[in-house]
């Protein structure tokens, strides 16, 4: 089965085309700046030269048309659109409606539209991608794979906030968690690397990028995660503040004479390590500045590392132990300094990083010392493969019914 995976952002589309018989990547690409000047598509067939083309794209339907054109080009990867057997869509938010990936129908689309209030920046472009594929490739089965689904196994004591219960009942205000496909992938791959059934493991998975989250995975199920009702809660991130006393929102609004919406924008787009350092949300910039003696850059890095350690410690307590800690994401995979900083002085918890093994980037590898009771692992993220696998299984099952 050939599966096309689509990840539609507000102005972008990431895509991969995979042959699921042996999980071979046929082609991949990225569409950027949809609806803006300078929109561009970057396409790469495996083993061929990357092609970059600037073309006008007014909406996601235009973007997906250009994806189809790129795939059908001589070195694109496809001979005909009829060769695509299924399409897997990353969808950010399904609320409590779906705890697993699902074959997309009109009923599913209507349910996702009801969740727009929960993810106003993410669900609309996800739905645009679904509608565009429905128009351009009618009859091709589509599957929705949800960022929030993996965390639906959390118990009420983990996901409920201590606010009047009626707000949960009326508005669905609770912790949902995100990066679910990434955390699930890390758990599966870690179990395979360790040659232990995932149902026999306690794992802490760290998806560290500009957006970042940590999850506690016990016996293959998410029992807690750092992101909450929105991706703003939890870790300090590139531009997001993470955990915050809610009284600060009204105080900033009152003192600065700005609206609650404007404060929320500051907390999402001007905070995190960018807000602390005043320099950048890019950890490479911060580490370079730190080496030049910039104390605020160093402070931002220390605050980020401390918050990751905070959640690791909390989740060890919650699960009564941990077998392995797994890093992924742009920072988790590539930032050797940050991995070392996070794991520093955690020997009493059985976490011992080997500095020599740690000197590596974007490889599936164990980073802990040989005598470390807790394994420290790095597993490059491949959310698209998770989406393709789930799409493949659901479509195959639906055809057997």
Automatic annotation (TrEMBL):
Gene3D superfamilies per record: 3.30.420.40
Compartment list: Cytoplasm
Site (Transition state stabilizer): 179, 240
Reactions the enzyme catalyzes: acetate + ATP = acetyl phosphate + ADP
Details of cofactor binding: Mg(2+). Can also accept Mn(2+).
Co-factor(s): Mg(2+); Mn(2+)
Residues annotated to bind Mg(2+): 7, 383
Residue positions of the active site: 147 (proton donor/acceptor)
UniProt: ATP binding residues: 14, 207-211, 282-284, 330-334
UniProt: substrate binding residues: 90
The protein's Enzyme Commission number: 2.7.2.1
Annotated keywords: ATP-binding, Cytoplasm, Kinase, Magnesium, Metal-binding, Nucleotide-binding, Transferase
Pathway connected to this protein: Metabolic intermediate biosynthesis; acetyl-CoA biosynthesis; acetyl-CoA from acetate: step 1/2
InterPro entries assigned to the protein according to its UniProt record, in alphabetical order: Ac/propionate_kinase, Aliphatic_acid_kin_short-chain, Aliphatic_acid_kinase_CS, ATPase_NBD
Superkingdom to which the source organism belongs: Bacteria
Pfam annotation, one family: Acetate_kinase
Major subcellular location class: cytoplasm
GO molecular function terms noted in the UniProt entry: acetate kinase activity; ATP binding; magnesium ion binding
Subunit structure: Homodimer.
Name used for this protein in its record: Acetate kinase
Organism for this UniProt entry: Aminicella lysinilytica
């Amino acid at each position: 089965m050939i599966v096309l995976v689509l990840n539609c952002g507000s102005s972008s589309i990431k895509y991969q085309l995979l042959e699921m018989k042996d999980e071979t990547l046929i082609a991949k690409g990225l569409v950027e700046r949809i609806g803006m000047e300078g929109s561009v598509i970057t396409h790469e067939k495996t083993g061929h030269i990357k092609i970059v083309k600037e073309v006008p794209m007014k909406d996601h339907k235009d973007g997906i048309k250009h994806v189809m054109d790129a795939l059908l080009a001589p070195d694109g990867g496809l001979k005909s659109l009829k060769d695509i057997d299924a399409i897997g869509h990353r969808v950010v938010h399904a609320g409590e409606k779906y705890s697993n990936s699902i074959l997309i129908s009109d009923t599913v689309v209507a349910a996702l539209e009801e969740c727009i209030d929960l993810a106003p920046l993410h669900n609309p472009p996800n739905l645009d991608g679904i509608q565009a594929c429905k128009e351009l490739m009618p009859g091709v089965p589509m599957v929705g794979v949800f960022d929030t689904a993996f965390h639906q196994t959390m118990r009420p004591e983990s996901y409920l906030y201590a606010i009047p219960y009626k707000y949960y009942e009326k508005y669905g205000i609770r912790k949902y968690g995100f990066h679910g496909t990434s955390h699930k992938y890390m758990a599966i791959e870690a179990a395979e690397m360790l040659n232990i059934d995932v149902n026999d493991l306690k794992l802490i998975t760290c998806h560290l990028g500009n957006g970042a989250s940590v999850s506690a995975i016990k016996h293959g199920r998410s029992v807690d995660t750092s992101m909450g009702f929105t991706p703003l809660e939890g870790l300090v991130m590139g531009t997001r503040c993470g955990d915050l006393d809610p009284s600060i929102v009204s105080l900033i609004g009152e003192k600065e004479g700005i609206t609650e919406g404007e404060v929320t924008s500051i907390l999402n787009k001007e905070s995190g390590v960018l807000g602390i350092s005043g320099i950048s949300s890019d950890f490479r910039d911060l580490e370079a500045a730190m080496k030049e003696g910039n104390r605020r850059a160093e402070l931002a890095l220390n605050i980020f590392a401390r918050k990751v350690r905070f959640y690791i410690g909390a989740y060890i307590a919650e699960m009564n132990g941990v077998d392995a800690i797994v890093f992924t994401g742009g920072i988790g995979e590539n930032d050797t300094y940050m991995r070392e900083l996070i794991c520093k002085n955690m020997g009493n918890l059985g976490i011992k990083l080997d500095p020599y093994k740690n000197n590596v980037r974007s490889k599936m590898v164990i980073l802990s010392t040989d005598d470390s009771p807790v394994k420290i692992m790095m597993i490059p993220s491949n959310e698209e493969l998770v989406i393709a696998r789930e799409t493949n299984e659901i479509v195959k099952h639906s055809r057997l019914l």
